[in-house]
Design goal:
The chain is an alpha/beta fold. The chain has two domains: 199 residues, Rossmann fold, CATH 3.40.50.2000; 166 residues, Rossmann fold, CATH 3.40.50. The chain has 15 helices and 13 strands. The strands form two sheets. The protein has an eight-stranded mixed β-sheet, sandwiched between helices. It has a five-stranded parallel β-sheet with strand order 11-10-9-12-13, with helices on both faces.
């Protein structure tokens, strides 16, 4: 049975258009990386200090546990942070990752707990780091090593019914402990900052908002006129319940019916807890596999091409702490449609305004229709240009250096 078309592409280490952002952040030097096993079996990348015993430069260590789980928004974020801190001095930034991924669910849960709270902090102390940056929500420091927690959002705690029960249990055990123990908490949006402060009020003074950087606008390979001749809706998300990919299929199916147009839906996805439901929804609305195209793996070049040639990027999520695909899309000149959930309006203002009592399905349908009528793209681009400084790579780097310098009292430039 042809549920949908699934073209295969090359896997890239940094997908979703951020590879060249990381490259720019790391200029003018390449990031120094070497895997040196420690007594704990962890892999670390580090260039030890030499010369005077009195250091004048701070040495941060990145807890890059998330990279063992494959390419994701969080793993790309860890890479961006690493490159931002490295800058022209790659020798002053290290990273540490687990040696391997356990095969069982219980094993993975135990590894997550012991790694973030015992092994990684111990490695940071052993390697002589001044502080450790935990790139994915949880962790702590150790004696002489301060802790920076990158807390992307609190969605798993805000909407527990939409997540795997074991992940919910893990989050309940560790998020609060990590936030309370952190010397500073970094989050990508004011929305996430407000949710963190609401859950743990005593952390409010230690929260810093640093938005993810937007890719630099590149050569757009399709004109607006060409996009309208080939109407395409793009969705980039994991197949998880809170991403509501089934809703995207329903809305585009309705748009196709009402407009009698040949609109395609391209979905760039990775596995999640709602995959079977999403595939069933695709089968229901597109049994012949004629207009839904499912991309399981994409190279950066292929995704950039999709961003550039799509008519619109649709974000149907119930909640978002930032949403990298939205900023990546608008930076490539492609309008974005969302229902205004979470931080989405903060990142990309939306037109037209939703009416009171409208369902998200109606809001998304109305806004998609407005895009195809040509009334949204220019206004969104004007808004993005006005706010471009906060999403600039230089701004991202300088804010991260401010965080490190604030904690260390020394210079990380």
């Amino acid at each position: 049975m042809n549920r949908c078309r699934e073209p295969q592409f090359r896997r890239s280490r940094l997908s979703c258009g951020l590879g060249h952002v990381a490259q720019r952040l790391c200029e003018p030097s390449a990031y120094w990386h070497a895997n040196a096993p420690s007594h704990s079996g962890a892999r670390s990348s580090w260039r030890p200090s030499v010369g005077s015993t009195e250091r004048t430069t701070v040495f941060p260590l990145i807890n890059d546990f998330i990279s063992t789980r494959g390419v994701s928004g969080s793993s790309r974020g860890a890479e961006l942070i690493r490159c931002a801190l490295a800058g022209s001095q790659p020798e002053v930034v290290g990273s540490v990752t687990p040696p391997k991924k356990p095969k069982t669910r219980l094993g993975r849960l135990l590894q997550m707990l012991t790694w973030d709270f015992i092994t990684a902090p111990r490695e940071a102390a052993r390697l002589g780091a001044d502080l450790i940056v935990h790139a994915t929500n949880t962790g702590r420091g150790s004696r002489g090593v301060k802790s920076v927690i990158v807390m992307h959002d609190t969605m798993v705690l805000d909407h527990p019914s939409l997540f795997n029960k074991w992940f919910v249990l893990y989050a309940r055990m560790t998020f609060g402990v990590s936030a309370k123990a952190a010397d500073l908490i970094v989050t990508p949006s004011r929305h996430s900052a407000s949710r963190i402060a609401a859950r743990w009020p005593h952390t409010a003074g230690r929260i810093r908002v640093i938005p993810w950087p937007a890719p630099q606008p590149g050569d757009v390979s399709a004109s607006v006129a060409e996009r309208r001749r080939k109407p395409t809706v793009l969705v980039v998300a994991s197949m998880d319940q809170h991403k509501r990919l089934g809703l995207a299929v329903e809305v585009v199916a309705r748009l196709r019916k009402d407009r009698a147009g040949d609109i395609e839906l391209h979905m760039v996805v990775r596995a999640g807890n709602d995959e079977d439901v999403v595939l069933d929804k695709i089968e229901l609305h597109d049994p012949e596999g004629s207009w839904v195209v499912l991309h399981r793996q994409l190279s950066e070049a292929d995704l950039l091409q999709l961003y550039a040639t799509s008519s619109v990027t649709l974000v149907p999520s119930l909640d978002e702490g930032f949403c990298l695909p939205a900023i990546e899309s608008i930076a490539r000149g492609t309008p974005v449609v969302h229902a205004g959930r979470g931080a989405l309006t903060e990142v990309i203002p939306m037109y037209p305004a939703a009416s009171e009592g409208q369902s998200d399905s109606e809001v998304l349908y109305q806004r998609l229709s407005a895009v195809f009528e040509g009334t949204v793209a220019r206004r969104q681009q004007e808004d993005f240009q006005e706010d471009s400084v906060q999403f600039a790579t230089d701004t991202f780097r300088s804010r991260w250096l401010e965080v490190i310098n604030e904690l260390s009292g020394r210079s990380c430039t």
